[in-house]
Amino acid sequence: MKVAVVGATGLVGTKMMQILEERNFPVTELIPVASEKSVGKEIVYKGKKYNVVSMQTAIDRKPALALFSAGGGTSLEWAPKFAEAGITVIDNSSAWRMDVTKKLVVPEINANTLTAADKIIANPNCSTIQMVVALNPLHKKYKVKRIVVSTYQSVTGTGVKAVDQLMNERNGVKGEMAYAYPIDMNAIPQIDVFTDNGYTKEEMKMVNETRKIMGDDSIRVTATTVRIPVMGGHSESVNVEFEHEFELNDIRAILENEPGVTVVDDVKNLKYPMPMHAHDKDDVFVGRLRRDETQPKTLNMWIVSDNLRKGAATNAVQIAEYLIAEKLV
Fold first, then answer.
1. Which of 126, 244, 277, 279 is flagged as catalytic?
2. Which of these, 131, 145, 138, lies nearest to 202 by C-alpha position?
3. Superfamily for 2-124+312-325?
4. pTM, whole model, 2 decimals?
């Protein structure tokens, strides 16, 4: 099982290799791939050294799988070339997510839609993944009508440059800026660029991807996405209106029994999810479960997850694990 990791020197690519190793994925040969300036660099995987190679070299080596985390432009150019060579691509960029010919997959929800013919599979946006993992089991029972979500997102979602900016500011060092403004001791209500409707691309990703993953275009979603100076993971305040009435105890029981979800909801003892607790874990953490007292059939909840793991790398590896288990690669 040859596996290529495209974008191997980036934050998500590095995390992908870590998770492949942690989960003992059956890699017989790792093929780390990055931009031309990184070709020749050494990557260590399971104690063995591998040299970073170019895109074309990776294709020529014919891996069974290629995990992409190298940006949308790179994916648009190279994913079809890998696919044409018979390589199954799992892409972490936004390039293919809303393409009607491509599956947008969170394994707990819709991996069963995958077939051997799916050669480019889209990995959803990090903030969308953690929300739908928590909401999908509730949608099955109560049917989600409308979601109002505000996010509090880690700088790691932007990449190494943003992490460096935060730490430089914290240490009083001048350096390159990933954002238009300082991020330390600040909150920036803009993630990605603004679109014509006044929402950012990140906000519209949450709207459109949620409907596609959950297979229900009737779900109404409105989002505000905010970058904050943390590194452990993304947090979300979610207000969800259901078609049917619910009991809080039933909501809690459903979430407690959902694979990949951990409920941390004991306000008497000040127990609730936080990025510092989600860091380097794969579960989606849910807490602050309470009724919206201003309207019926509506729930407030707080959702936290490590955006580099379940929000990106782990979800991609879980897709790969499903493909192998079902003999689709």
1. 126
2. 131
3. NAD(P)-binding Rossmann-like Domain (3.40.50.720)
4. 0.96
234, 244, 277, 279: which is the annotated catalytic residue? Answer: 234
* Gap between the Cα atoms of 123 and 126, Å rounded: 9
Q: How far apart are CA 95 and CA 74, in angstroms?
A: 9
**Residue 131 in contact with residue 285, Cβ under 8 Å?**
no
- 126 is a catalytic site residue: yes
Are both 2-124+312-325 and 127-307 of the same fold?
Answer: no
CATH annotation of 127-307:
3.30.360.10
Tens of pLDDT along the chain (329 residues) come to 999 999 999 999 999 999 999 999 999 999 999 988 999 999 999 999 999 999 999 999 999 999 999 999 999 999 999 999 999 999 999 999 999 999 999 999 999 999 999 999 999 999 999 999 999 999 999 999 999 999 999 999 999 999 999 999 999 999 999 999 999 999 999 999 999 999 999 999 999 999 999 999 999 999 999 999 999 899 999 999 999 999 999 999 999 999 999 999 999 999 999 999 999 999 999 999 999 999 999 999 999 999 999 999 999 999 999 999 999 99
234 is known as an active-site residue:
yes
Q: How far is CA 141 from CA 242, 255, 320, in A?
A: 9, 12, 29
